[in-house]
Design a protein that fits this description.
Number of helices: 3
Bound molecules: adenosine monophosphate
CATH class: Alpha Beta
Strand order of the largest sheet: 1-2-3-5-4
Low-confidence stretches: none
Radius of gyration: 14 Å
Largest sheet: 5 strands, antiparallel
CATH topology: HIT family, subunit A
CATH architecture: 2-Layer Sandwich
Shape: globular
Number of strands: 5
Distance between the termini: 29 Å
Mean pLDDT: 97
């Protein structure tokens, strides 16, 4: 299934891309929920974090390492919130695995 994120990877629709390598791409969310709100996605089409398989182990680790690098590059020295909404109960609206990297303001717990 083609999602809007696949179209961003393929450059079929524009996005404010802040990072890209062979395995993943990160771009600013169109409806930011914090001063910094970036989405990090694998280029491989994986529906959600629940759909990762053994063969994705190094990809999953890579994504987490990129989160740390991105947070530094984006100046999130005070910390950040990393979110992977998963499935309907998790509030996922785009069926392509993505991490929300949110920062630039304090975050509350528990989330809504
Ligand atoms: P989720 O609800 O966790 O599936 O998150 C999907 C996110 O994608 C939402 O925060 C949307 O604002 C964001 N989004 C949807 N379309 C685009 C787009 N074309 N460019 C950037 N972000 C988008």
């Amino acid at each position: 299934m083609t999602t809007i994120f696949k179209k961003i990877i393929e450059r079929e629709i524009p996005a404010d891309i802040v990072y890209e390598d062979d395995l993943c791409i990160a771009f600013r969310d169109v409806q930011p929920q914090a001063p910094v709100h970036v989405l990090l996605i694998p280029k491989k089409q994986i529906c959600s974090i629940a759909d990762l398989s053994e063969e994705d182990q190094s990809l999953a680790g890579h994504l987490l390492l990129v989160v740390g690098k991105l947070a530094k590059e984006l100046g999130l020295d005070g910390g950040f919130r990393l979110v992977a909404n998963t499935g309907s109960d998790g509030g996922q609206t785009v069926d392509h695995l993505h991490f929300h990297l949110l920062g630039g303001r304090p975050h509350q717990w528990p989330p809504g």
